[in-house]
Amino acid sequence: MMSLVSLASDVNECAQDNGLCEHDCTNQPGTFSCRCNTGYTITADGHNCTDIDECKLQNGGCSHECRNTAGGHTCHCPFPLLLDQRNSSCVNVTSCALRNGGCDHICSLGAEGGVHCSCRAGWELNADHRTCDDVDECVSFSGGCEQVCVNHAGGFNCSCRSGFESRKDDPTKCQPVCEPVCQNSGVCVAPNTCDCPAGYPGPGCSAMCSPPCAHGGSCMRWNVCLCPPGWTGDGCHTAVCELPCGNGGRCVAPNTCQCPSDYSGLQCLTPVTTPCVPPCQHGAACGPLNTCVCPTGTSGIRCEKLTCPVVTTVVSMARAVRKGFRESYVDRCGPLGVQLCTKYRINQARVYLQAYRVGYKIQCPDKTR
Ligand SMILES: [Ca+2]
Ligand SMILES: [Ca+2]
């Protein structure tokens, strides 16, 4: 750590460990001194501080009893005298102005000129006629509490045992707590015990359905489910298909049919045609169970064998179309129409387009011949 070296030769002894002074350290040119807080005096070692016992010096200025304290002292008076405003002399009590007449709570002037103490509600006057002591209301009749009385300074509270709570209309009384709360006009008669009306046997007098209501159905009185649209049955487990499922299809969700493998569609009315694998050849149709239905002239599992000759077929595809032609003609032209010019126009004509489609077919000999 860096430190600035002052030009003067003085060393600040207070900078380290407070100059070993117990209270205050004062640095001076070439030296230092320890000082003590008010009520203390320096000891012979010049560093430590010790309490001054003021009571040993003219009784600390007290008219009666003096009690020494660390750093000070206090004066005390024998009953029924009170300390005066300067906290040193003891005087007779003649008014409520001095220290509230010595009263804890309420001071009033007595008939004979002396003062009279009294206490606020919930407190009672001590035998010293000044101090106010708390009244323990729970000692007599348990404070009027139905279950538990709790005393505190100036008052008391009623509380309830576990499973009960204070009644709103009368905090001295207790009522049982039911969790969950009793619904449907049920009455909580003991902790977590509802007295339920008929038809509501569930927790907290709720309706109870067995089997439970599925698909968002509401459980009503007497084990009845109120089902949402699209569902019906005891526990709302049965789906409703407004259009019935055909061909052995099952209604599995609202308006949803689950079809057998050979039918499809909303109501399972469309037969499913599955192509044969491998495919049938020579135009053969695919029959049930992946079998090919071979046309005349073919055989084999896939109708791949030809049993009759194949002949070429030619089909004429001739058709007539309209087509535009450009043709020239001579016309008069020029400023006075005296010149001759060649002009062009589009003329429509019907033409024939000739085409052929070449195909093949299996031609078996005529059996009748
Ligand atoms: Ca003292
Ligand atoms: Ca009390």
UniProtKB/TrEMBL annotation:
Q: List the disulfide bonds.
A: 178-188, 196-205, 241-251, 259-268, 276-286, 294-303
Sequence ranges assigned to domain EGF-like in this UniProt record = 175-206, 237-269, 272-304
Supply one GO BP term: system development
Any Gene Ontology CC annotation: extracellular region
A Pfam family cross-referenced in the UniProt record is FXa_inhibition
Q: Looking at the keywords, is Signal present?
A: yes
Is tRNA-binding a UniProt keyword of this protein? no
Name it: Multiple epidermal growth factor-like domains protein 6
Species of origin reads: Anabarilius grahami (Kanglang fish)
